[in-house]
# Entry
Amino acid sequence: PESGLPDYQNKAFAFYQIRQYAFAAIVSSMLAYLVAQFLDVHLFHFWRRLTKGNYLWWRNQRSTLISQLVDTILVIACTYLLVGS
# Structure
């Protein structure tokens, strides 16, 4: 339309958009989960070697904090890239 807004009355268009967003969010979430879990395990073991097995709580908190931050950033970035804008 001339207003630049999508035709919300066209139910096929609305369904296609919702399906596209859901697919992008699901794929992004799964990809980010795998990357974040891989990072979490490697960071935990890296800090375990660095601290010689001490500071379990510290290692766990730091590796989880960083991996969750990476997960959040990846979900948002990948969803944005898959949707296209």
Remarks:
- The mean pLDDT is 89.
- Residues 11-50 form the longest helix (40 residues).
- The helical segments are 11-50, 56-83.
